[in-house]
Amino acid sequence: MKPIGYVVVALVAAAAGFGIYQFALAPRAVELPQVANETNGSAPAQDAAEGDSDDGLPEILPDFTLANLEGQPQSIRSWTGKSMIVNFWATWCAPCRREIPLLNKIQAEHGAEGFQIVGVAVDFREDVLKYAKEIGIDYPLLIGEEDGLEAVTKFGRGSLGFPFTVFTDNQHRLVLFHLGEIHPEQAEVMLATVRRVNAGELTPAAARAVAAKQLQELPAAKE
């Protein structure tokens, strides 16, 4: 067990060790406002200048800076002109580990059309570096412990389970918020929805309603 000597407001009342830290953020059922079928959370911690949408999501991808794989600070907004897929995860989270091959595939197949996955590992840096090297992650990673948890608070009210993923258009407007493991059929719906926003066919708010209907029609994902 690795001790963490800090207090995380709203997410962890008092983190006395890695076990408490893990328990506080492990994927589980949580009471969060519903924002379309694929979404189970909303974000209160957003700059007032950018504002929130009517359904509680921040309109623009909230800015935060964490260390990248090389140990250099990097802003999540440094990928300009890209449709972002920002995936929050941790090495101890089984659903997080399961969806990494799919995220690798999405990056390989859709990176050329402007989609950019960034994994945000809320975990101990040495654990992330070791795991990323072992399995191979083909997209950029940002890594943080307390600062990673602070980034999480910009997307949800109260504690959120892992993984969760936000999708933006190419202007960094938030389009979709997904809590839980992403499955291939869901990914297809969400990527297609972002494309329609980029093409000017849908606003982000309208896109959430369209995606919700399509996701509800999908067969239940097998665990």
Automatic annotation (TrEMBL):
Molecular function via GO: antioxidant activity; disulfide oxidoreductase activity
Keyword Membrane listed: yes
Keyword Transmembrane helix recorded: yes
PROSITE patterns: THIOREDOXIN_1, THIOREDOXIN_2
Bilayer-spanning residue ranges: 6-24
Domain of life: Bacteria
Residue ranges occupied by any Thioredoxin domain in the UniProt entry: 55-196
Annotated Pfam families: AhpC-TSA
InterPro entries: AhpC/TSA (IPR000866), Thioredoxin-like_sf (IPR036249), Thioredoxin_CS (IPR017937), Thioredoxin_domain (IPR013766), Thioredoxin_ResA/DsbE_sf (IPR050553)
Alphabetized UniProt keyword annotations: Membrane, Redox-active center, Transmembrane, Transmembrane helix
SUPFAM superfamilies from the UniProt entry: Thioredoxin-like
Protein name per its UniProtKB record: Thioredoxin domain-containing protein
